Predict the structure.
Amino acid sequence: MGPGVRSYTDLPRATRLTVLFVVALFALSAVVLLIFRVARSGALPGTTVVGVDVGGMDGEELRRALREVQEARGGDELEVSPSGDDALGAGSAGTQGSVTTSGTDMGYRIDVVSTAGNVLERGRQGNPFAALADHLVSTFGTITEEPIDSFDEEEFRSWLERNDGELSTQPFPGGVEFEGSNVTPRYPEAGLVLDESELESKALGATRAPGEDTITVATEEAEPPTTDADVDELVESAEDLVSGPVTLTRPNGILTISPGEIGAATRVVVIEEDNDTRLDLRVGATALQRSLGDRVAQLETEPQDATFQLSGSSVNVVPSVEGFEFAPRTSARQVLKVASRRNRTGKLKGNTVEADFTTKDAKALKITEQVSSFTTLHSCCEPRVTNIHVIADMVDGVVIEPGESFSLNDFVGPRTTANGFVGAPAISDGEFVEEVGGGISQFATTFFNAIYFGGYDFLEYQAHSYYISRYPMGREATISSPAPDLAFLNDSDAGIYVDTSYTDTSITVTFYGNVNGEIESATGAPYNFTRPKRECRTNPDLKKGEEVVVQTGYEGFDIEVTRIFPSGDEEEFFTRYQNGPTIVERRKC
């Protein structure tokens, strides 16, 4: 050991005892602290937060207790009142009152996570003496921990906005009032506003202190951001605005807005720009529309779809027409603008309404020429002719887009008298009967052949059970509701425009589109004939031996038709017609 350095044994006995005592005391404290820390989990026993015992609590249990403290503190009723006079006096912008609220309503919040951290830190500090002291205090007394709390800034601002009218009298910037074409100025007035910083401080203190339920907050006078001269200038603008009617025109009419209607729809707005505040006039869209009422509807027009116009075998597009819709916001701005003109007249602006089927849509379908046409003949003036004309009118002008399927049943719907159909003969279960819509299979057959010679793909069709001589053998179709149906697919790259026309003795269906080449058809000879059966029905009204032929029988046969495409491809259509029975009536069969 070097010179001047003393060993422990060289120290005086009293000094050695003191060192030993300190070391022993430190060791004992460390052992006691270790024992406390091991034995005590969570908050130290006897720890309270705002009078609530949280000793032993940890994790979610502790956080839930702190949230309950927040609810209890924030739930107390609190009355907020401005100090000073209740009003500025005669002609002031308004009066002040009081508001009954609570800390929770004002946005009072306890920082649960941070407060819980502080609670759990007690007895676990880095300073062992401070930690041990907390453990000793908690053993024989109570540890009080204050929560970390404040008002949520966003909720506090929201509360201020909601209660501004009760607690503050905002300065009035001035404005004008309209009565017809007369304008009355309203000059600026000062207001009284709360000291928001003092309000927040006192409200937080009152929320923390049970039983303190009333706070008074200082107010200060707030000068308006505008002057009397600003209002005088606004009056001049207002008088110009209502100096006469405003006239807005459309091709189909005129809308005249009176000075009174303009004034009723006008409001004053405060505009802040570059630290400068000014007053201006705005015509309100909703107020203007309410003033005008139904008059604007007379100027609105519906859009018109593009259509196709036939010229011989060619097709031209008739352009679509846009509709017009009144636009309150646009018109409100326009009134202000037009009122500044010398003649106070302008063209009414609004929203254009595009047609559902535009010129562009029509041209994109590439419908340019006649693709196919077919005509069938019928007798004149029978009830069935009425039904043929009704369904023809329904289908006339139908547009079928590329890739789109078309069902005659789906498009036409039920054949009812309400839809214009009448009773006429039809075939049901092999017999001729009376049926509403009877006879429209003639239209179906005509439509079938337009599809056939157009080269389009059949999705569903059914020939008549019995051959009817007015139709082409093997190239005809029947239709009924809900079945059988006649449906096909437009499998070309162009649209189809369907045109129907008729006379007293014929019906014609023509398809317009765009296809290459013509369809040819070859019809084979009928074969596999079957003779009609003979059926007898009893009619007691007939004389003995008398016989009445009710229905003449038909032969049945098979037939094949070939559709030949321009490419040379062929498609076979096979039809089997049943034989129709000869039906006779006798007194006794």
In short: Confidence is low (pLDDT under 50) at residues 21-25, 31-39, 86-94. The chain has four domains: 1-73+112-146, 75-111+149-176+184-227, 242-362, 369-586. Residues 1-73+112-146 form one domain.
